[in-house]
Amino acid sequence: MPASVKALGQARPSGASMAPQARCCSPAALQRRLPILAWLPDYSLEWLKLDFIAGLSVGLTVIPQALAYAEVAGLPPQYGLYSAFMGCFVYFFLGTSRDVTLGPTAIMSLLVSFYTFHEPAYAVLLAFLSGCIQLAMGFLRLGFLLDFISCPVIKGFTSAATITIGFGQIKNLLGLQGVPRQFFLQVYHTFRNIGDTRVGDAVLGLVCMVLLLVLKLMRDHVPPVHPEMPPGVRLSHGLVWTATTARNALVVSFAALVAYSFEVTGHQPFVLTGQTAQGLPPVRLPPFSVTTANRTISFSELVQDMGAGLAVVPLMGLLESIAVAKSFASQNNYRIDANQELLAIGLTNVLGSFVSSYPVTGSFGRTAVNAQSGVCTPAGGLVTGLDLLPLCVTFMLCFWEVQYGILAGTLLSALMLLHSVARPKMQVSEGPVLVLQPASGLHFPAVEALREATLSRALEALPPRCAVLDCTHVCSIDYTVVLGLQGLLGDFQRHGVTLAFVGLQVPVLRVLLSADLKGAQYFSTLEEAEKYLRQEPGPQPYNASEASVPEHKVALLKA
Questions:
Q1: What residue intervals traverse the membrane (predicted)?
Q2: Given this structure, which CATH class describes domain 423-555?
């Protein structure tokens, strides 16, 4: 994907006020579906130069990464290369981020290893089915569903995956054979067999790690080029920049050259990858059945074998890609379209399956979770700890099985979210008139909690007292909430006291007025309601008749 197309993501549809028939055929709508049309007319030679440098750098980097990711996925190394190129072409036309590249990633490779049993046929079919699911979500505009996967769940999963993948490479670094892939068994057998370490593999691995670190430090400290620099200095600068940028490819080439040198001498102290298939992958349909020596595994059996992977893999692929796209869009001041990203990654996986690719996604980057926490006292640490609860659950269970970690963390986050909806915090002001203010909206599961709080504080007091419900934070209500408020008003009337409403936003006021709640009293401000309930001179309430509603509210109601 070009890395410097500055117009990409900035051209937004401007026909929001057009009729649907005109909007669906407008140039803006076409640009939204084919984002390349937004930036291609303005493409320049300067952009081409920068894109070429960026594309070359990414290409040199992705080759050794793809080989390593295939090993993480438990597949032959060529499958990493097969998975690395289709996303470049699809995202070129359909992507909305100028920075994102699609291809194999560490986390996606780990998931593939869990759900495909290290069998290429399962991996390719999983790419096809994942792409179909992602495409369907894009066409149905279901990108908003990803917002229900909380950051603690994502962080817990990625942290556990980092440890799992990192520790999984120790056996390769030490040249150990026969180590299981399950994490806890892997830890046990690695330490148990550490005495079988191959010196050649360990030395070569450590040297490569040191070289990568040194080249990275050099890259971070290369001074910028100035026009007044002599040509020789600029040439040296360019060589150093190229070497440090392509450090992954250089180190892999160096290690391969060392291994080849020993192979020529007839003495090989290293464990080699072995022969890799040559040439481009054949274009063919994904395997909808697999024939073994004993029988033919049908499509339905393949799907059943992959089980939860058909939900986890496409979901995590979308999360990775959209998370990194949003991160770079925020840093570089442009916008992305989440639903368009679903289409791009879905089509990449579908087409990639025709060239033997396993599921791919955007490279996952760590993002800043909170730009501003808003914590006022050290007691905020308690709140932070509860945010961390899904993270810890996900983190720990991912060492057992990835799907259990993600599922448990998501369910725990959902339960915490549902609890906050069903039992919202309530600000209560005691006095002759009780004032209750839901702090985070009022949804139908919270009606019973509101009723209990009101009854216990207002109607069970001696004597019963009037109450004011401050609806400042309530943006919308549904039929169940209206019924609950109607029952609450009946309770107040039976006790001979009044329940008043203040701070009603227009959508809420419209629903309540149309419901014609008996005994309901509406006020514009809390002061007006308290004066009326204390029987002091002041403005009178407005009721179900629109004629009694303040003029500024009437204008909004009619809008």
A1: 50-70, 76-94, 123-144, 156-179
A2: alpha beta
